[in-house]
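Hi R.,

Here's the chain you asked about this morning:
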Amino acid sequence: MRRFAVLALLWCGLAGAVQAGTILPPQPTNPNPTGAGEEETPMGELLRRGQKGVPMQVDAEKAARCQICGKALYLHSDADFTCEPVDKEVQHIEWVTVPSPLAGRPFAAAKQGNVNHKDGFDRDFCRHSVGRVAVHTSIWMCPESGYAAPAQWFGREFDGSPLSPETIAFVQQELTGSTRRKMTELMGLTPKPGTEVPARMLQFNDFLKSTEIPDWIKYENALKILERGEKKLPHYFLGKIHLEAAHANRRYLCSELGVPGLNPQSLITLGQAIRRMNMFILAEAMEVRRQRREDLVETTERDPDILAQAAARVIEKGERVVQEAEKQGPPAAGDVARFNIADMFVLYVRHSGFLARQGYLSAAAKALGEARKVIPSGFIGDGPDEVKQQMLLELDLLRRIADDREAALARERVHLYRAADYLMQALYFGKDEESLKDLGRNAYLVGELLRRDGREPESAYAWLLAAQTLLQDDKVSGTLEKVNRAGLITWAEEGLKELEPQARGKALEANVARAVATVVTRAGARWDDSKLKLPALPAGAPDAPAPGATATTDPVAPTPGVAQPPAVAPEGQKRSRTELYHRYYEAFRAFAAKNGNENPKQLADLVAGGFMNADEACLDAEGRLHCPATGAKLLYMRGTKLGSEKMPLLYPRTDDPDQAKLWGDGRIAEQ
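And here is the predicted structure, written out as tokens:
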């Protein structure tokens, strides 16, 4: 745990290498600098400067800009600065005074609106908006009674009739008490021992804005009322509400980091870490796009796949810096720390949000676990008791962030499964008009929701296959425009490629096959039941799970934009990773001997130059290296000089069980 001890000493007062006003601008350049004069990313430059003790100052006009007001981020730390939004319309909220049927006093509710997709769409149509005042929820909730319902019939039953005595009794018995506890905690009302919160402070309708209440609480209460069994509601409608609830939890997971209760110095440290890490992630995202020859303008922050890959890169580099700090011991007085607790905490939390947007919920939970690990379990060092108590309180507040977001992940998973279940029933029975308007789109949505939930990959595969069939048929594609259909077809193809390895050899449940066939034939598309025969297991693969078995964990997230790894050779013909490393080191030395001691820009240059044969290089169609024994991705650090004892040339991802690396001096070891 020495790593955390080192980090803990950096939490208060020792900010990272980039301070307010000195933020390096993101640039689409090479992330692996190899020498003076070569281009490099801000992260690469930061590491190089930090290692040499060079000051981090850059021109103020190159500082990162706020996406709300367009001004430099570092200006926001000034006490008299006001962040004025550029887009006035997006920032406008329309408020409505709504009478509460149970509390006796009205409350202010925000109309759904100001919703933009400037921060991107997810593959299950979750929209992420820029601006805190975007109102996504269609649910209103009375903060005093806990009664919640869709805005269009708030205060009435689904059929327009007055609230029934049964509904009122259910809310009072099951929701009012729990909602009051949540609102009390939300407002920070903590009475002194032996006292109670004054009754006046519990009249939340008078002062608590609906935008201050997390949306997931509103959906949780509304769904408890809608699903309690009094009246049967349309399957499609309930599926829609569950999907909105899943999106509400995801937005909560991806929301900005804010920790009320931290002292001013800690808040400054955390704020600087957020800005610093956002800049690093953006710089890496632009580099990823540059390598993939994609547009660098306006799109970088909208793609969760790119952002997830960028965050993973920054984490990889941050962990290396932390490991170096462990070897060197605690920094001397006046030294500038390159990564501190706040930096790594922010990185892991941001990464979890990107993974959740991709649909890899178990991987997102693992990232939150890593965020929790970097928070020390106790106070390290000497100091007055009051300082120790304050520090322990602050560390606990940070841990709660990870706990709260992990709970949001669990809620999202439940809502995803319920949404998929309701939508499957709506499509199969064909009684909900809304579900029948665009069968291809809704069949795709079922498959995507099942993929995200991590259950029954063969069922998700079948629904995505049905969606692909419907979307490609112009006669039955519904009201979707061709451009929208093209995007959905691409998403469906990506889902099929991802699910195929998990679905191989598994038996598809009869009711799923029947439902899929019913939906496709109802639409008038040509359908052959043989399409539902899932791919057989390849020769030499392990036995298939028993029929009806379901997946219990998420698939391993594939690297965005990277082709699938080469097929692994059958047992007995596999080369080991160690053998691969030895062969690459020979090739690196031969290449350097003919190219001024420089490394190749990419591994494919070793093949192109005749230093390795294509069949032994283990490169996929995109030039990415994969282990011949396991198929796991291996990364290349171009900036490592031959002979270096501290930097690796080839290394695995952090989630790979085998952490052996090929070091610059030819060693093969984890450290």
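One quick note: The first strand starts at residue 95 and ends at 98.

Cheers,
M.
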